[in-house]
């Protein structure tokens, strides 16, 4: 057995060295020994970051669902693949074995085929965290359709934009969703979105909340009767290594969301390998990632990575606060969770509630704790370590992105000594670089700069759907021959990395990436608004919250500011979703601009963060006088 399971630090260094000295040999061995191929590759890797073009395992043929499901049927057919934990703790959890998963994915795949979906077609999945979500994802992969999962908290406008961008043929949704004590009318949102979409031919509707909804004749179909009638086996479509597996949208600092395209073989190999090592998953473990499958974390580390390893993965439909803040710990105890992976924002929200909830539960099953999505502050790290892991469960602070497909910088549990707030070391095969403002790589330790990756890794996104130029401009133009992450980082005296945050206009709120431009566009649609600028400011629980500076047209003057604030947030909710609502809105007579008309966000950020001691050089501003006015009226 080669290097598949790393157990201590020396082994990490040894395997790491091998993986960067001879990446092709290294990845070939991993791919060869641990996955099921219909045909082996002709070439392990070809790449050219100037185009950019990256191909892994070219010539290979496979189906990822054979790796995630079929091959386990012989050895672990009766093992639980997915534990579904419903929103309401009184509703029973569902244990889906690998055999049952096979049956359900095949039936779903046959339903899709019957509705005219084939290889290469795009299917939009807009579902809550119910088994049908994972099953739909896998069913698409079974038949070679490209899934585009849209987080079910996005608004109808956001959904329509995503459906149209990739011209999806089908939407899979449900009659509604539960979220704590609330229900959400998902089908209503889909109906509204589809008024703006021409490409959708059919809508499949799962029943979840039993609400009375409208079904459009000829277009909408209840899912369950179709599944009941479908055949329980489905021959997998044989895919080429570089065939697209899915599209997942992520916000950019400007323009519409970017449909990141992930392909099949490299994504499979890398997510499976990282899952196994980072979390040190063992055969009998129960693993739980609290993310939503609507985000990359859910794709890679609820569905593909765990299932590829034959793991038991928990899917939780609800929220951490329902029926009370003890819910996570209740689930850990109930399912004897061994690996628990969540976001800093959830840890901070739980920490605020104190330890009473924790003390009521037996958390002794926990072996490894993970975090992802944003920098974790020291206080939250220690709270997690002391109270949840009782100092016995290593914390893996995993840094990665929608674009990277899998975890990039992270401790390997039990192998890498952890350090609060540090994502620590590059994962096997990952070659990070810190860059200075002149585009030069900063060598050595105890330095900080902009984080790039200088060599391809198997699960990197290959393009932006329909816009390869934008892919190149966004990720491969800032620095020569390197992938630019958009993050800043520092490297300490032993080579550990700490991610310091975004260096562009993306703001991470509660672990969700939000681009400023789409929010500003939404605000500017308000008839009374002339102009707006959004910045982030530190927030105890969300990490960052949004602060909007808004200038009004003459028609808006004299209007009640509180009403305007409500209307602006309403517009944002409609255009994007409630996650993008602003915490603070300040009305001002102008925005600080450079002589070329660019808004000086740096100054606005400082004012929003109440860090006005040194505003830097304001002399180059076109209108320096507005700075004082904004400071005087800051919220
Ligand atoms: O800024 C980094 C932050 O989240 C960004 C990626 O967001 P997204 O594509 O939504 O993917 C999130 C889940 C993988 C990164 O550019 N980020 C993610 N993980 C960490 C982090 N920042 C600090 N520490 C992390 N562990």
UniProtKB/TrEMBL annotation:
Transmembrane segments: none annotated. Keywords: Acetylation, ATP-binding, Ligase, Nucleotide-binding. It comes from Mesoflavibacter zeaxanthinifaciens subsp. sabulilitoris. Belongs to the ATP-dependent AMP-binding enzyme family. InterPro entries: Ac_CoA_lig, ACAS_N, AMP-bd_C, AMP-bd_C_sf, AMP-binding_CS, AMP-dep_synth/lig_dom, ANL_N_sf. One of its GO terms (molecular function) is acetate-CoA ligase activity. This is Acetate--CoA ligase. Residues 71-462 form the AMP-dependent synthetase/ligase domain. Its EC number is 6.2.1.1. Residues 519-598 form the AMP-binding enzyme C-terminal domain. GO terms for biological process: acetyl-CoA biosynthetic process from acetate. The gene is acs. Residues 12-68 form the Acetyl-coenzyme A synthetase N-terminal domain.
